[in-house]
Amino acid sequence: MTKVYAPMTGKVIPIDEVPDPVFAQKMMGDGVAIVPTEEVVVAPCDGLVIHVFPTKHAVGLLTKEGEEILIHIGLETVNLKGKGFEAFVKENEAVKQGQELIKVNLKYVKKYAKSLVTPIVITNMDKVNSLSFHYEEVTKGKDIIMEIG
C-alpha cells in the first residue's frame, strides 16, 4: 500500500471535477486534484523523479512499488513556458516524502493560465489494484490524499 501525501496545501477535489477533459475523463490516469493555496510543491511519497518538464509545470515520480505519479501544476500551464515556476529537483534524483520539488507563483499562474487546479494522477493504472481518496482541506506533506493498493 502506497500512501500518497498532499504535494500542495489546499482543497482536494475529485478528478472528474477538473475543468479539463483530459484529466476529468481520466485519459492520463486516475487520481485527485488540489486547488492550491500555497506555492510550494513537495514530494507526495518517497520515490525517484522520472520527469521534470522543461517548462517546470509538471513532475513525474516513480514510487518504490512501481506506480508513476504525475503532479500537473495548474491547467494549460505549459503555455507559460516555465515562467512562474522554479524546480528544485532533476530527473533521476531520489526524493523523500515532503521534500520540496517545485515553487510556483500562484498569482502569476492564476492570471495567465486557465486554472490553478493541480491534478495528481497515477499514469500507469495497470500497476494499481485498488485506489482510495481523501477529499478535504490538506496541508502539504502532512495529510494523505490517496492510498494505492
Key features?
149 residues; mainly beta; Glucose Permease (Domain IIA); three-stranded antiparallel beta sheet
Task: Compose a concise summary of this entry.
The chain is mainly beta and 149 residues long. 7% of the residues lie in helices and 40% in strands. The strands form three sheets. Strands 9-5-6-7-11-3-2-13 form an eight-stranded antiparallel sheet, with no helix packed on it. It has a three-stranded antiparallel sheet with strand order 1-14-12, with no helix packed on it.
How is this fold's topology laid out?
Layout: E1 2-5, E2 10-14, H1 21-24, E3 30-36, E4 40-42, E5 47-52, E6 58-62, E7 68-72, E8 85-87, E9 94-95, E10 100-104, H2 106-112, E11 118-122, E12 131-133, E13 137-138, E14 144-148
Antiparallel strand pairs: 1-14, 2-3, 2-13, 3-11, 4-10, 5-6, 5-9, 6-7, 7-11, 8-10, 12-14
- The CATH H-level superfamily is Glucose Permease (Domain IIA)
Low-confidence stretches: none
Radius of gyration, in Å, reads: 14 Å
CATH topology: Glucose Permease (Domain IIA)
Oligomer: single chain
| Fraction in helix | under 10%
Biggest beta sheet attributes: 8 strands, antiparallel
Q: Give the number of DSSP strands.
A: 14
Q: So, CATH architecture?
A: Distorted Sandwich
How many domains is the backbone divided into?
1
Task: Please give the count of helices.
Answer: 2
Strand-pairing-aware structural class: mainly beta
| Order of strands in the sheet with most strands | 9-5-6-7-11-3-2-13
